Amino acid sequence: MTSQMKLHLMLLLVAAVMTVMEAQQFTFSSPTPTPMTQQTLQQVAATLQLYVDPLPQMPIVYGFSTEGGNPVSTNLTIGMYPTNWKFHRDLPATPVFVYGTSAETATFPGPTIIARHGIPLYVKWENHLPDLHVLPTDNTISVANSTMGGVPTVVHLHGSVHPPQSDGSAFAWFTRDYKEVGPKWTQTTYMYPNIQPAGNLWYHDHALGLTRVNLLAGLLGAYIIEKPEVDDPMDLPSGEDDDLHLIIADRSFNTDGTLYMNSTGNVPSIHPQWQPEYFGEVITVNGKAWPFLNVARRRYRFRILNASNARYLNLSLSNGLPFYVIGSDASYLAAPVETQTILLSPAELADVVIDFSNSTTPCAEILNSAPYPYPTGSATTGTLLSKVMIFHINDTKVFDNSTIPDKEVNYANVTMPEPSTTTRYIVMYEYTTPSGGVTHLYINGLRLEDPVTETPKAGATELWHVVNLTPDNHPLHVHLGMMQAINVTEIVGYQQFFDCMTQLNDAIKCNVTDHAIGKTLPIPEYEKTWKNVVKIEPHYMTSVVVAFKIVDTNQSYPFDSTAEPGYVYHCHILDHEDNAMIRPLKFLS
């Protein structure tokens, strides 16, 4: 460890002690639970019989009204409520925080909002959560900390093109009945223009330092932008029985059915509770542990979201049927891609069709083979974590007028950037103690609170070279930006480059172009469209085209993107984002 890094760690220790002393004045977290061993958590998971609960679907809320047969703008009120949720037939009901149009209708995940392209939606987000959290938190990281009781929350519509006031800034949090608000809070109602291409989004909590615990508690839901003139000609499977969400999230449970989250950090002398990744022992889909779905011998559309905090998913079907991927994140592809496997990072979406008509088996499991942490962690093969859910396939074929189209949209392909394109180097760091315990993660060696360094212009396209100096794959998410990876190149002479970067924190001065010359990895065909999340391979440089505009029309935004509180970009492993792999993004006039 260099003297500079030792000094940095010493300063971090001092800051942590000061923060702990301040945090002792008040904490909204519930009392510290009795520690659970991984073996006990695995034993609880093993008591849950596979495939006994039917796959539920979330309530649908329409984000538009109709007048004279035409869609018009509307207003919704969606609240965050405490409730008890049955994750499994044999598990006691679990206290959770969830979204709903009322306390009685709130669900895990929250209701699916279906919006119409070009029709603005206004959502008033209300916080009805109690004084105490259902999960342990950590006040030694940068965190939204209520001084009057209550759980701070704020909502981000992931993948949406919207004004900064409606982005769900980490600093725009609010507690129950807006009793206390963060320094960037300005309004109760958010406006979503729905002007981007048709596709799949999702909404979730984004409060400073609490994203990982608030999502783990259940604050997440799906959002669709429909555009009939684009959707309908493709004749994809449609209707409430044939077009379904699969929202996958891992969770661990205590013996009493409550959600488990670690109460002790991996370096508790610095962060008493925070750990670098949360991995649950149970795989849930739409809020049920290892559910089943009865399907006919026909095509189905599944909008698959990995809503896990940190777990990657490498999905396949046990009977060898392929996935036909028609979209990735919030965009359709140029044409469907047939594949046996789909790798999804946290926060990543795959829009797929599965054709059960030619199945040679009466059932098909969705399997997961991704190690954790990804890509070099523990294997899932042969464990309960290798199973996601099961399809029971009816014997009789049925009439099916849906199709897998030959072509989809003409805006999916990326144009290689011009030499004059603004280019940035984005470097991901992980900081550890001398014994190897992870203490925090930064982008470009900076925190969220440090001065902004990424200042794009609305309507512009930039080229970001993202260098990963950590052992983990990181899902990069840029608010308001649509992205495509175009090149993934290995860093050669890695240790020399790493040592230089820890000293200088400057990719150009460390001659990154002389090191990013190793082998290249292919971009999966099913990811070749405009995305909201791009996976950043460890010890590689991933070159990403970032479009700060509406990609299907090539137009700039019809709102002031330069306004406060601005936007952010971050790693979407939630434990990393909370501490503190997140940076501000401020648009220039």
UniProtKB/TrEMBL annotation:
Broad class of the protein's primary localization: endoplasmic reticulum
Keywords recorded for this protein, A-Z: Copper, Endoplasmic reticulum, Glycoprotein, Membrane, Metal-binding, Oxidoreductase, Signal
Signal peptide: 1-23
GO biological process: cellular response to phosphate starvation
Pfam families to which the protein is assigned, alphabetical: Cu-oxidase, Cu-oxidase_2, Cu-oxidase_3
Molecular functions per Gene Ontology: copper ion binding; oxidoreductase activity
A GO cellular component annotation in the UniProt record: endoplasmic reticulum membrane
Highest taxon of source: Eukaryota
InterPro entries assigned to the protein according to its UniProt record, in alphabetical order: Cu-oxidase-like_N, Cu-oxidase_2nd, Cu-oxidase_C, Cu_oxidase_Cu_BS, Cupredoxin, LPR1/LPR2
Membrane topology category: Peripheral membrane protein
Transmembrane segments annotated in the record for this chain: none
Domain Plastocyanin-like: 140-229, 285-358, 448-584
Subcellular location: Endoplasmic reticulum membrane
Cofactors (names): Cu cation
Annotated family: Belongs to the multicopper oxidase family.
Record's function text: Multicopper oxidase that may play a role in the maintenance of inorganic phosphate homeostasis.
Identification of the protein by name: Multicopper oxidase LPR1
Organism name: Rhynchospora pubera
Lineage, opening ranks: Eukaryota, Viridiplantae, Streptophyta, Embryophyta, Tracheophyta
